[in-house]
Design a protein that fits this description.
With 379 residues, this protein is an alpha/beta fold. The chain has a single domain, classed as Metal-dependent hydrolases (TIM Barrel). The chain contains 18 helices and 8 strands. The structure holds zinc ion. Zinc ion binds next to strand 1.
């Protein structure tokens, strides 16, 4: 029964494009979004004005052209240059609280029900804030959004590959000190090439020892060896990007068998030239190989995207059928760094909502059958 249904849905001639307005209705998760890359352009403009910071633009429109990577850049290092601009106005408690609130608000308005926002506190200390101040500021903004909108959030603190191992340790301590207080994981971000994650091994050790979660940017600007290191030296529970995992069959099996989620960011990967074109991204191969793929924005401003758009691009480029759409949406909730009981509620509520929307168009009994055989290993 299950087999017959699957085969029918995989037929190319049954494929139909989902519109953005349809995709916007679904409950979604964003597990990989950088705070400093996800500011509203008008807010960036206003903050620069009120803080007296010169960003080299004479209007918000001009500023947008400077920070948004519409076409491709040369590589990841080039992409990261936009962050030098945004970071200049993100050095105060008020600015951090404001952009955090607005990010959660924007996400909630496209039905993102769960979001883990990440940033590196070390990049926000230029005007005298402490690492803890930055956490308190971001939490203030996120909590305000949570009280107003139907969204749940968490913070991921990022170590930076190019900074010293000692600085990573400070962040690891902050990630541990704020466990249960809104910080859900520790990450390593920044320039991947020439800056191996294992240099920061002690920070990961400290975080893992305290039973805090770990995710690592890997397999984006460097090959599968970087993913291998993230998993086996740093103890990553999730992988940021994992675009080049495809190059190592054995490691790919490991990632599949251990249900390690991949935080895929399609638009960003094209912009930073990890893949030449969207259709070259291994998303379809990963999905068919039963990897736990999730779709994320990376940077809403810099990449000029949101979760709905990422979903739309995935559905259109890789011809996702409604079952695969459902699976991808659920993968986001399943991969949340949340306590098990909370996660189960989130998954259950989202599933009900997803099925209600899908049920308007597709026969529900088929969905139930499909759910059965693929949901044996879920949470
Ligand atoms: Zn990232």
């Amino acid at each position: 029964m299950a087999k017959r249904t699957t085969r029918r849905y995989n037929q190319a001639d049954e494929w139909k494009e989902f519109s953005t307005s349809y995709l916007k209705r679904f409950p979604k998760a964003d597990l990989h979004v950088h705070l400093d890359g996800s500011i509203r352009v008008n807010t960036l403009w206003q903050l620069a004005k009120t803080q007296g910071v010169k960003l080299g633009a004479s209007s918000a429109q001009e500023l947008k052209k400077k920070v948004v990577v519409d076409a491709k850049v040369k590589n990841l290092a080039d992409y990261l240059k936009s962050f030098d601009i945004t970071l200049r106005v993100l050095q105060t408690f008020e600015a951090l609280a404001r952009v955090s609130y607005e990010l959660a608000e924007d996400a909630a308005k496209e039905n993102v029900r769960y979001m883990e926002v990440r940033y590196s506190p070390l990049l926000h200390l230029a005007s005298g804030l402490t690492i803890q101040d930055t956490v308190d500021a971001v939490l203030t903004g996120l909590h305000k959004a949570e009280s107003k909108y139907r969204i749940k959030t968490g913070i991921i603190l990022c170590g930076m590959r190019h900074l010293s191992a000692k600085r990573s340790l400070e962040l690891a301590d902050a990630a541990v000190a704020n466990m249960g207080e809104g910080v859900v994981a520790f990450d390593l971000a920044g320039q991947e090439k020439d800056y191996p994650a294992k240099k920061h091994r002690e920070a990961f050790y400290r975080v893992l020892n305290a039973n805090q979660n770990v995710t690592v940017h890997a397999g984006e600007a460097f090959g599968p060896a970087s993913i291998h290191q993230a998993l086996h030296y740093c103890g990553a529970h999730r992988i940021g990007h994992g675009t080049r995992l495809l190059e190592d069959a054995s490691l790919m099996d490991y990632v599949r068998d251990h249900r390690i989620p991949l935080e895929i960011c399609l638009t960003s990967n094209v912009q930073t030239r990890v893949v030449e074109r969207l259709q070259d991204h291994p998303f379809r191969q990963y999905l068919d190989y039963n990897l736990r793929v999730t779709l994320n924005t990376d940077s809403r401003l810099v990449s000029n995207t949101n979760v709905t758009r990422e979903l739309y691009r995935a559905c259109r480029t890789f011809r996702l059928n409604h079952y695969e759409l459902r699976q991808t949406l659920l993968n986001g909730f399943r991969s949340a760094f949340l306590p098990y009981q909370e996660k189960v509620v989130l998954i259950r509520d989202s599933l009900r909502e997803i099925d209600a929307i899908l049920g308007e168009t597709f026969p529900m009994d088929d969905l139930v059958v499909l759910q059965d055989w693929r949901s044996l290993e879920h949470h």
